[in-house]
Write a structure and sequence with these properties.
Elements (H helix, E strand, L loop, with lengths): L9 H11 L5 H13 L6 E5 L9 H4 L4 E5 L5 H16 L2 E5 L7 H6 L5 E5 L5 H4 L3 H14 L5 E11 L7 E3 L5 H8 L5 E3 L12 E9 L2 E10 L2
Parallel strand pairs: 1-2, 1-4, 2-3, 4-5
Antiparallel strand pairs: 5-7, 5-9, 6-8, 8-9
Bound molecules: S-adenosylmethionine (SAM).
The site of S-adenosylmethionine (SAM) has 23 residues, from loops.
């Protein structure tokens, strides 16, 4: 597997997202929208981890909740999120509070602060291997987080694998986890692929959807999306 990946978050992320969300990213955004439409947690409160400006999050999902708490390290995220989603949230009477903090500094503290909320990890878990260079520590963190989330309604869409490709294969549903090798072979994808170390975040027997995302014209991310009912 390749040892580097594109960084996301911050100024360049926002510039790319602003241009691509109505173009190259449109099919991926529609897939995220359709996947989230199927997740129906009973909670009226939602915690968003790493939502950025919500470039890929649909209003129709966010407005299903009464209260949203968002946690992102990017200080620009609240203002940009307000530009993208503010009007829809105001119309629907959804309250939104922000925390400009690292979720990973105290995951238990963040979750304990919102005991009655469903939790959505917004394409953030695949960035952990860029922030923490120790692969074993990242994989241990995924398992620890899964344990912390026990009894919760939670969902995550995250980078599983990324690499060079100029076409996006079709999205697909899986009954359970598949190894990186099996998944890439099933798509007929060769070459070097970066493993984002998120393969153990969802329980192995949880159904999931693979959403291919053409992040750039020549770069494909295979996003894994799944939920766990509390
Ligand atoms: C790929 S972007 C998410 C995009 C988002 N799903 C959207 O629709 O725009 C990843 C986000 O995770 C945030 N992030 C990265 N590390 C974080 C951490 N430790 N705690 C909270 N947020 C974090 C980044 O600031 C960035 O906004």
């Amino acid at each position: 597997m390749k040892k580097s990946a594109d960084r996301t978050g911050g100024f360049f992320w926002h510039m790319r997202a602003l241009v691509a969300r109505q173009g190259l990213w449109t099919p991926f955004r529609h897939e995220v929208d359709a996947w989230l439409a199927g997740w129906k947690p009973p909670q009226r409160k939602l915690v968003l981890i790493g939502p950025s400006a919500g470039w890929c999050l649909p209003d129709s999902f966010l407005t299903r909740f009464d209260e949203i708490a968002a946690v992102d390290i990017d200080p620009a995220a609240p203002r940009l999120f307000a530009l993208v989603h503010g009007r829809a949230l105001r119309r629907a009477g959804v309250s939104l509070v922000w925390s400009n903090a690292s979720f990973f500094a105290d995951p238990a503290g963040v979750l304990d602060a919102h005991p009655q909320a469903a939790v959505l990890f917004c394409n953030v878990m695949g960035q952990r291997c860029i922030q923490v260079r120790d692969s074993a520590a990242v994989e241990a963190e995924m398992l620890h987080l899964r344990a912390l989330l026990k009894g919760r309604s939670w969902a995550s869409f995250h980078d599983l694998l990324s690499g060079i490709a100029s076409e996006a294969p079709a999205p697909r549903s899986l009954d359970r986890a598949m190894s990186a090798y099996e998944l890439l072979s099933s798509y007929g994808l060769g070459g070097e692929w970066f493993d984002h170390l998120t393969g153990q975040l969802l329980p192995a027997d949880a159904p999931r959807r693979i959403l291919p995302w053409r992040f750039k014209r020549d770069r494909l991310h295979l996003i894994e999306a799944g939920w766990v009912d509390g």
